[in-house]
Amino acid sequence: MGSGQYNGIAFDNAGNAYASTSSQICSLDVSTGTTSFCKSINGASVGDLGSCAIPRPELRVTKSVTGFVGPDGKPTVVAVEGGKVTWTIEIENIGSMAATNVEFVDTLQDATVTSTKLNGVEKGADYFNTAKPVNDPVSQEGIIAPGAKATIEITTEVPTGYLDSHQDALLCNQGTVTLTGEEGSILTDDPDTSELFDPTCVTISNPVIDVTKTATMACLPDNKLTHPVEFTITVLNPGSESITDVAVQDSMPNCTPTYDSGDTSGEGLLDPGEEWVYKCTVDLSVSEVTNTATVTGKSVVSEIQLSDTATYTVKSPELSITKDAATVAGDGIAAPGETITYTVTVVNDGPQGVTQQGISIVDTLPEGVDYVAGSMERTYWVTSGGTRTEVTDQPAVSMDAERKLTIFSASDGISLEPIDSANPDASEEITITFDATVSQEIDLATITSVTNTAVAVAEQTALECPVTASVENELRELYQFNVNKQGTNCDVGVPTCDLSGAEFALYGAADPQAATPVIADTPITGGITVDPGNGALFVSSQLREGTYWLVETKAPEGFVLLATPVQFTLDSNGVTLTDPSAHTGVISTLAGDENNLPTIVVKDTTPAPLPAAGGPGTTKTGLFGIGLIIAGWLGWFVTRRKLPSVVRD
Question: What superfamily in CATH does domain 59-205 come from?
Fold first, then answer.
């Protein structure tokens, strides 16, 4: 009452306030606490105004949700993730006296405040994070006159992902009001509920529609896309509301997406968690194509128009891959038991480096060709300390059930920079070599060649067509032949006989692919060896079809070497002399059969009937003749002694 000046306060029917002393009555300005127009009343005591019912302020505080806006800025009928909610708080003085030192605070923690207004005036996003004075539109700060009210608007943004951390899907809020003369605080009240001092809650919805797009295609030899290409468009509802009026369009000409599957209920609503699949097939013959699929729909509860797009690029490879197969003879032809050495080379034709997801390289071996364990060597590039370094290693790789060798997987993170056009020799490349053996049991009657294929893929976010390199090796059978060394004029009635003591060497062609074969400089190691059980018989190693030369390197004792090498071809027909007339009477051939190898017969001739090495010879015949002469002489002598004398008459 101001230092004891006043002992009574009263209001008239118009709401005007008056203060009194023992002898005066004054008009009271409740907004400032000052008096004016004081007037003495003679003969009357006005101090009894203090005995009247003391007037007091009484505040009623309500809070309600007055607006929803979607992420697109358009009004909605419910609160949604990414959208905005506006709360309106009305602080009304229903008492008979002005409320003073009125303050309001609202610490909304589960949403981001974007705007606060007091009586329509913007105060800033975080204004009411701490207690601030509020007033009606005409009173001074902190005062709300009787019958007047202060209006506060708080606009919040619902975080995306709110439902992931709030299983009840509710966003609740409650503010607090304090004033002079009121013990404690007044909580905001939701007038739509019967519970006292309840927080105001809104249910959050999350209508979402997503679309993804993939393609199924392969590479043509010219690194263009195969045609047709089948595109698959998948529409997903990861939100909390069902979606109606789903429509899918594609920017690619001639691609009209057609519903394929996914509507499990059959009611035409894309329910939460459902995926609908659409497909279209387009003929393409270009190296790269980019297109966009668009899906639209409307959420059933919030009635929000939804849409999403998926831009997809299908392109032919920027990687290039080559493959080589080196065979034993260097002619690309392999035989059972032989080893093929494969080399795979991958380069990046650019212009961008392959660094995002790495490179995968897989090699598939054909039936009948087996990987030689431990034979693989890889050379590739890594980044270490900001520097590109070439690395060579020998990985432990094994062939899986599908006969595949996984040389690199995308998880290895192998990168490859583009070819340096200014210095191609210094450009990066990935090189892999490994050995594989042709099975001895391979059926050459049904398998005449083997093809090995390597596939490389740059695992980028946009699908890249894999690059493929294949190499084919013709399969040929290996052949063998015998050499039989014979002597002539072995004995009477024995024109030929086996002759031991010779040695032979076998030579191949210096260039097996040459039109006119020329004998090689060195013999084939182990090309022909003597039979341990027969010194006159020699057997060749397993040999490829081709031209060969037989050279006698040691003659039996008492004989001379073949004058010139014997040239012949070896194939499925056996042994064929290149020039039979060159060794007439000396060289002949015998055809092979299922029990015998084809044979080259080498005969040694002598000027007279001389003994064949190891044969019966002519000595026995001569002794027999001498014996006959002696026997004839002895017979003549005995007969002569026994002749009777002549009797003469």
Answer: Immunoglobulins (2.60.40.10)
